[in-house]
Amino acid sequence: MVVGDLALDLETVVVGSGPGGYVAAIRAAQLGQKVAIIEKEYIGGVCLNVGCIPSKALINAGHVYHSALTGDQFGITASDVKIDFAKTQEWKDTQVVNKLTSGIEYLLKKNKVEIIRGEAFFIDESSLRVMEEDGPGQTYNFKNAIVATGSRPIEIKGFKFGQRIINSTGALNLKEIPKEMVVIGGGYIGSELAGAFANLGTKLTILEGSSQIIPTFEKDMVKLVEKEFKSKGVDIVTNAMAKNAEVNGDRVTVTYEVDGKENKIESDYVLVTVGRRPNTDELGLEVAGVEMTDRGMVVVDNQGRTNKKNIFAIGDIVAGAALAHKASYEGKVAAEAIAGQPSVIDYVAMPAVCFTDPELASVGHTKASAKEAGLSVNVSKFPFSGNGRALSLGQAEGFVRLVTTKEDNVIVGAQVAGPSASDVLAELTLAVEGGLNAEDIALTIHSHPSLAETIMDTAELVLGHPIHI
């Protein structure tokens, strides 16, 4: 291969190797395309390196530690329980993150996807230049491109990131467990990390701008999380407007406003989780003539195709929730569209999960969204307190809820708040995707004892013949 100023030809190029990019690259290769993937930082993207995977590892470590301290209900008392946070971080990085990222690199090579290291800039609609860290750069011509560059944390005025004012990446790489931490923003990321550090012993205060934390979930679900936070000494301040933070040595003073009244609070660290910004501002997409919104999002059709027919965009840089599984799904569709298949994106059964205590999970319609869509529905709710497995785990808080059509009991939505909600939701996601009705679920034999039995119990409740309630 000749390098330098002479442009090299590629068939399909994927920019970014996160959950959207690497899946798109592998699927494109499976369909017979010659594929190259360009990555400027780390294989696996934010999710695997400094996002959803390491955060879940930290959450699990918090659960283990907290369980050791609170085993009284099971007759277990542990004394002198200690945590070596350096070892926790080492385990997270070497036994979780590194194994997964090296696994993805193996899968890319296995599927004959060429990995190009460097930062990509579009020159026009059929070529781009990759700048290597220590190299002169290389120009590539391509037939098709899939842009999957993800997003980054938003830095807000008055909260400049540094050693004491950190974003989610900084929180996941801390060398110590904070004694006190203020979290600005109580959405998915803020609430998950607040829960992890609360379990590790940190005194937390969450400042949330809206009327409740995790505002995308329904109130009765969020109340369970708030109750758990309260039991661990977490303070939640809603309708709070964060003004600024002042660092003084190893302490940070946060000024915030509620109902026009100014307040101050001190802590060791301030974690800012107020959203993410699409990584499209330095790609040269405008030069390539790709249509974008004023917020930097790429405009695409139902196959992920931009106004330039050979350029596709997926993941956090297009409309919709910033979810790893959404990006992976879009990546498959884009790869298949390039191959000439009639695949289209359909978000009807896009699951959403928040890994708090307890976990919250939702798919399809809520009662409110069903009404907005003109659907006539019933809502049925079964508590985990009626489930033997949940009781045996000591985690009986929460419920499963089904949203079904009045006419024929078709499941158009579901919400789960409780133990392993992220896993329990899978069957319900299939039900929404497949257009199943409550009878389909009720007639399915569920293993006993299992948390999934709550789904069957809720379906029986829909049909009017519940056994366990």
Automatic annotation (TrEMBL):
Please classify the protein's predominant subcellular localization into one broad category.
cytoplasm
Gene3D superfamilies named in the record: 3.30.390.30, FAD/NAD(P)-binding domain
Question: Which segments constitute the FAD/NAD(P)-binding domain?
Answer: 12-331
Is Cytoplasm a UniProt keyword of this protein?
yes
Q: Where does FAD bind?
A: 56, 149-151, 316
The record's listing under InterPro entries reads:
Class-I_Pyr_Nuc-Dis_Oxidored (IPR050151), FAD/NAD-bd_sf (IPR036188), FAD/NAD-binding_dom (IPR023753), FAD/NAD-linked_Rdtase_dimer_sf (IPR016156), Lipoamide_DH (IPR006258), Pyr_nuc-diS_OxRdtase (IPR001100), Pyr_nucl-diS_OxRdtase_dimer (IPR004099), Pyr_OxRdtase_I_AS (IPR012999)
Xref: PROSITE patterns = PYRIDINE_REDOX_1
- Gene Ontology cellular-component terms listed: cytoplasm
Catalytic site residues? 448
Describe how the cofactor binds. Binds 1 FAD per subunit.
Which cofactor does this sequence's record say it needs? Answer: FAD
User: NAD as a keyword?
Assistant: yes
Which residues take part in binding NAD(+)? 185-192, 208, 275
Per the UniProt record, which EC number(s) apply here? 1.8.1.4
Q: Which UniProt keywords apply?
A: Cytoplasm, Disulfide bond, FAD, Flavoprotein, NAD, Nucleotide-binding, Oxidoreductase, Redox-active center
Instruction: Kindly state which reaction or reactions the protein catalyses.
Output: N(6)-[(R)-dihydrolipoyl]-L-lysyl-[protein] + NAD(+) = N(6)-[(R)-lipoyl]-L-lysyl-[protein] + NADH + H(+)
* GO terms assigned for molecular function: dihydrolipoyl dehydrogenase (NADH) activity; flavin adenine dinucleotide binding
Give the similarity note: Belongs to the class-I pyridine nucleotide-disulfide oxidoreductase family.
Q: What else is known?
A: The active site is a redox-active disulfide bond.
Instruction: Tell me the protein's name.
Output: Dihydrolipoyl dehydrogenase
Source organism of the structure: Fundicoccus ignavus
Gene coding for it = lpdA
